[in-house]
Write a structure and sequence with these properties.
Radius of gyration: 20 Å
Distance between the termini: 52 Å
Shape: globular
Strand order of the largest sheet: 4-3-2-1-5-6-7
Largest sheet: 7 strands, parallel
Low-confidence stretches: none
Number of helices: 17
Number of strands: 11
Helix content: 40-55%
Mean pLDDT: 97
Order of helices and strands: EHEHEHEHEHEHEHEHHHHEEEHHHHHH
Structural class: alpha/beta
Bound molecules: nicotinamide-adenine-dinucleotide, magnesium ion
Length: about 375
């Protein structure tokens, strides 16, 4: 029996790479559902190629166009955010890959967990916003959360066979982004075009901007806390500009295990699908001789305030990381629309953290309300 996979966000960077994995491993995996936000043409093309049972377009205004594009095929077509939550519950689905962007990933991920589906988690915002809730649900429904983010996949790979051995420290590597060597004066004037040129990874626009501010690394610290059950002090961010070491784990005897490779998301995506097995794959191999040198630096939270704010939110707990995520989504979008300067993004996030009501033990409804309120506050500060 082939494993049935639902991809939330199949037209994005992670989604399209996941389809390449499924194509290469077609004897093991099959697409059950594909979903996208707006890109009807690409979604229809993917549907023709992979023959899913169902496709969903989140934007209802695009429903008719998608329906017509697939009129000659026996594929169910739905639209809207609620439909995303419903399709992931379908009986035959084994794995739901959450590859959509932002807070919008939270509701369908919760539905999938409640329906007992294994989660291959790319949408880190889900854990940033509501890690405690997601962990509790995953435990209740006995559902594995398999990391797709390259750093967390690396940590997960290092932990294979180490069930008896507690983690002393996680070494979370960061490329440092395109502005690693910029001074504060230079950072004040950087543009979105410069920010969108990531040195090592080709990703969606939102995460690329988050990588330039290091908010992405801050989110990954939060993600690591919830995935691996460590305290914030046990996570050390290590700037490693070559992006060869994808992350490492230090154990109680001082041993450090790391996972190395070329920067290619297909490997972590495939490992989430095939865990605990490794599958033969055609990805490029890492040539240490051509890389030559690996270097390491401490992150500078003075220039990259977002990293400090994420750590701070993790220490505060409650709904604070939800506030940071929402404010970040607003400033990230505004930066892409040239409405806010690079350094102003962290200032607005920090101010939003002081203005939205803090809730120590948030419920799901509290997260929804916090997200809405933090967006409103952040937007008003732009
Ligand atoms: P992307 O922008 O390339 O693609 C996003 C996908 O989600 C698209 O298919 C889009 O149609 C869909 N989508 C966006 N908003 C939606 C909404 N409101 N409702 C329904 N669908 C929506 O993004 P990406 O770079 O592939 O990133 C996806 C997720 O994976 C993010 O959470 C990101 O942080 C995480 N991630 C990405 C990478 C990477 O290499 N791209 C690496 C690690 C983690
Ligand atoms: Mg990452």
């Amino acid at each position: 029996m082939k494993k049935q996979i639902a991809i939330l966000g199949s037209t994005g960077s992670i989604g399209t790479q996941a389809l390449q994995v499924i194509e290469e491993q077609h004897e093991l995996y099959e697409v059950y559902a594909l979903t996208a936000n707006n890109r009807v043409e690409l979604l229809a093309e993917q549907a023709r190629r992979f023959h899913p049972e169902v496709v969903v377009i989140a934007n209802p205004a695009k429903y008719q166009q998608l329906k017509e594009a697939l009129a000659d095929l026996p594929i169910k077509v739905y639209a809207g955010a609620d439909a995303l939550c419903q399709v992931v519950e379908a009986g035959p689905i084994d794995i739901v890959l959450t590859a959509m962007v932002g807070f919008a990933g939270l509701p369908p991920t919760i539905s999938a967990i409640r329906a007992g589906k294994a989660i291959a988690l790319a949408n880190k915002e889900t854990l940033v916003v509501a890690g405690e809730l997601i962990n509790a649900l995953a435990q209740e429904y006995r559902v594995p959360i398999l990391p797709v983010d390259s750093e967390h996949s690396a940590i997960f790979q290092c932990l294979a066979g180490e069930d008896q051995n507690p983690i002393e420290k996680i070494l979370l590597t960061a490329s440092g982004g395109p502005f690693r060597t910029c001074t504060l004066e230079q950072l004040a004037h950087v543009t979105k075009t410069q920010a969108l040129k990531h040195p090592n990874w080709d990703m969606g626009a939102k995460i690329t901007i988050d990588s330039a501010t290091l908010m992405n690394k801050g989110f990954e610290v939060i993600e690591a806390k919830w995935l691996f059950g460590v305290r914030p002090e046990q996570i050390e961010v290590v700037v490693h500009p070559q992006s060869v070491i994808h992350s490492a784990v230090q154990f109680q005897d001082g041993a450090i295990k790391a996972q190395l490779g070329v920067p290619d998301m297909r490997l972590p995506i495939q490992y989430a699908f095939s865990y605990p097995k490794r599958l033969k794959a055609s990805f490029d191999r890492c040539d240490l001789f051509s890389i030559g040198n690996l270097t390491f630096e401490k992150p500078d939270t003075n220039r990259f305030r977002c990293l400090a704010l994420a750590f701070e939110s993790l220490k505060r707990g409650g709904n604070m990381s939800c506030i940071v995520n929402a404010a970040n989504e607003i400033v990230n979008r505004a930066f892409l629309e040239d409405r806010v300067a690079f350094l102003r993004m962290a200032e607005i996030i920090e101010e939003t953290m002081t203005k939205v009501a803090f809730i120590q033990k948030p419920t799901y409804e509290d997260y929804l309300a916090t997200d809405a309120e933090a967006r409103r506050v952040a937007e008003s500060l732009i």
